[in-house]
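YM 10:42: GntR family transcriptional regulator sequence, as discussed on the call
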Amino acid sequence: MEFRDNKAIYLQIADYVCEHILLEKWKADEKVPSVREMAVELEVNPNTIMRTYELLQQQNIISNKRGIGFFVTEKAIDQVKNFRKAHFMDHELPVLFRNIYLLNISFEELKSKYETFVNENFNA
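YM 10:58: structure's back
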C-alpha cells in the first residue's frame, strides 16, 4: 500500500479496510487480519493498526472478540457507507463543488464523465 502525505496513515488504513468490506473481500462475521499481520503486510507500526481498529470499532464496523481477534460486524457495509458518506459530504464535496464552480463545469459534463467512469470501472 502506498501512503499519501495529505491524510493520516491510520485513516488511510481505515479506508483500505472499509474498501475490503465494501468489495466483500471481508464479509460479515469474518475475522480480519490481526494487528500484527496487518502491520507486517502494510509495513507500519502495530500501534498505527491498533489506532485504525479502535476507530473502526467506534464506528461499529469491526468488533473485538477477546482472545480471538477482530471481526467484521453484521451491519458493517451499512456502517461503512454511512461513515464514508458523512466524511465525503462534510469534507470532500465542498472542495469538489468549489472546483466545479471555479472551472465552470456543467452538470451535463459531470454526468457524462460519471457515466463513463461507472461503465469503465464497474460494468466490466
